[in-house]
Amino acid sequence: MNAKLSTKVALILCLTIAGGWLGAGDALAADPVRIDGAGASFPYPIYARWADEYHKQTGVQLNYQSIGSGGGIQQIKAKTVDFGASDAPLKKEELDQAGLVQWPMIMGGVVVVVNLPGIGANQLQLDGATLADIFLGKIKKWNDPAIANLNPGQKLPALPISVVHRADGSGTTWLFTNYLDKVSADWRAKVGCNKEVSWPVGMGGKGNEGVTAYTQKVKGGIGYVEYAYAVQNKLATAKLKNRAGVFVSPTMEAFQEASASADWQNAPGFYMVLTDQPGEKSWPITGASFILMHREQANAAKAREVLKFFDWCFANGEAAAKKLDYVPMPKSVSELVRTMWRADVRASGTPVFN
Known about the structure:
- The protein is α/β, with parallel strands linked by helices.
- It has 14 helices and 15 strands.
- The radius of gyration is 20 Å and the shape is elongated.
- The relative contact order is 0.18.
């Protein structure tokens, strides 16, 4: 799997490589097991890496459509996929209504990316209120005093600010707007927090891939993407001022710090929001990405294959996750998830995971 991400505006990932195409044995190619999923683009890089390695080891194919969290939730509710993926967790009431279970699979950070001549990675500093005002369209130029005051000694260009946001229903947007909703009363009053919002300004890109592509192309651009997209596409990230008043750079350690106080054991339906967490080293826009499945499964064998894949990811995927700057779920959390699978995911009343 090529580590460099595609930056096409409309990307659909299909890891449906038949065993025979990879030169595997005839038995593998004859009757491959295929798992279908859809949803968040936030975890796409690590799901792609895990799926590639799992296919090599087992012959099982993963067809995952990176269409955004909103689409993933719609598809799993419509039972057109085996699992959905969302960075915006569903509350227990909604899970129960739809007959779904949910669990966290990976954690990471949403980062602010900019395309400014002469400004490299983590050379620009922003706080939450200023970031909100940029995305509200109140701050229109990069050398505005509100930005300059946060960046003493930094030569800021007199370029117009070009806001880039998501055009689709997105868990990345949910995390980003959840943070802005917490730190800016003006944002809360005018826009709020959701997977899709009425953006006051800017252009829309489909998926993290689309926001990455537009930000790369537009001088003066500013957008928000999952950290792996910024790293692999060499986009300049901005430092953000966290709840402790410290300007921090996005790193795996900063994401871990933000997730340190999470009490997963007492979170109904594993609902957990990790934005604007305490800690001097905490990254303020940290979040988990969640998997959704139906409690009652029509096909026990297929459901078992889905859970076997995610069980393998928990057990064997930590090194790959860290390499892509995601935070693996702690072993204590993966054990909580396995316990939930055994209790709640059933076919004709019988547990599908042992």
